[in-house]
């Protein structure tokens, strides 16, 4: 069996079970794996060494200087291929080989950040005030300004991923129930709620946008095409500058971290936050609990440091 054919079948499987973003990243990783094999003139499955070839690929990625997170994802893509080949009995791997592979991969994995990059919440609050001022004065502000402010409030109050936001359609929003259906990783849908400020923002955004039929998405570019994730990032940067917080780094995904931290601090309900964020595993959500514990420890220490 040709390597390319095996990769093609694995990509079909990934496309059916993973999100579009994950598929794209895994596809890139498998393409790199195939090029790595070409350098050694390996074109057929029967010429693969298990687990030697996969360990060599991990070492190859590390030598090229890829970031730890990129190496982790690319190795995961290659592991998907290995699992598929083993499952369909194209190759075999012993228990010892599995342990050797796992140990070797951990060596080349590198240090990956596990704690969320939570922004300065006071600065986020300041930007949200600026955003609401833009929204409340929607008649005198441009469409782009109102759209950027609305998306900012939506991200902050829902904790949605930026990729989920750009895919929202008008029919997904339930204004009466103050909720919206979003499609997350693995094409899984979930219902997220929003608050009074976002409700006001969405209403004023609709007024500024006007009634247009046959739209490709709810949030639009200036040319009335679907807004891209890059467009959302630029919008957040413009709001940071409007708030005169020069040099403050803020991304749409950091607003997701801000939402999780605030929500967990106010409710203490990990299960609720996991559901709202669309995390498949509670372990992913627990990192926010560790963060809030550190913040509480720091603030507690300041109580007594002031007396020294």
From TrEMBL:
The keyword Cytoplasm applies. GO terms for molecular function: DNA binding. Residues 1-86 form the Core-binding (CB) domain. SUPFAM superfamilies: DNA breaking-rejoining enzymes. It is found in: Cytoplasm. GO terms for cellular component: cytoplasm. Its main location: cytoplasm. The keyword Iron-sulfur does not apply. Residues 114-301 form the Tyr recombinase domain. GO terms for biological process: cell division; chromosome segregation; DNA integration; DNA recombination. Keywords: Cell cycle, Cell division, Chromosome partition, Cytoplasm, DNA integration, DNA recombination, DNA-binding. PANTHER family: PHAGE INTEGRASE-RELATED, TYROSINE RECOMBINASE XERC. This is Tyr recombinase domain-containing protein. It comes from marine sediment metagenome.
């Amino acid at each position: 069996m040709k390597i390319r054919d095996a990769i093609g079948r694995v990509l079909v499987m990934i496309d059916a079970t993973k999100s579009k973003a994950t598929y794209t990243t895994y596809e890139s990783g498998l393409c790199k794996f195939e090029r790595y094999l070409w350098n050694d003139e390996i074109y057929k499955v029967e010429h693969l060494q298990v687990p030697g070839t996969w360990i060599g690929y991990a070492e190859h990625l590390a030598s090229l200087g890829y970031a730890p997170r990129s190496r982790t994802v690319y190795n995961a893509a290659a592991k998907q291929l290995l699992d598929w080949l083993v499952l369909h009995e194209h190759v075999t791997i012993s228990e010892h080989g599995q342990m050797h592979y796992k140990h070797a991969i951990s060596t080349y994995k590198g240090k990956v950040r596990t704690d969320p990059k939570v922004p300065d919440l006071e600065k986020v609050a300041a930007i949200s005030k600026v955003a609401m001022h833009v929204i409340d004065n929607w008649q005198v502000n441009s469409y782009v300004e109102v759209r950027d402010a609305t998306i900012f409030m939506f991200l902050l109050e829902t904790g949605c991923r930026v990729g989920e936001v750009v895919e929202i359609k008008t029919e997904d929003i339930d204004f009466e129930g103050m909720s919206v259906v979003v499609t997350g990783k693995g094409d899984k849908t979930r219902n997220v709620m929003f608050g009074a400020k976002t409700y006001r923002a969405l209403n004023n955004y609709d007024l500024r946008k006007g009634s247009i039929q046959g739209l490709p998405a709810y949030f639009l570019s200036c040319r009335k095409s679907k807004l891209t994730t890059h467009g959302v990032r630029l919008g957040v940067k413009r709001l940071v500058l409007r708030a005169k917080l020069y040099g403050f780094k803020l991304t749409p995904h950091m607003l997701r971290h801000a939402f999780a931290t605030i929500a967990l601090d106010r409710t203490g309900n990990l299960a609720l936050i996991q559901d709202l964020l669309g995390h498949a595993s509670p372990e992913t959500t627990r990192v926010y609990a560790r963060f809030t514990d550190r913040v509480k420890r720091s603030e507690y220490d300041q109580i007594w440091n002031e007396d020294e």
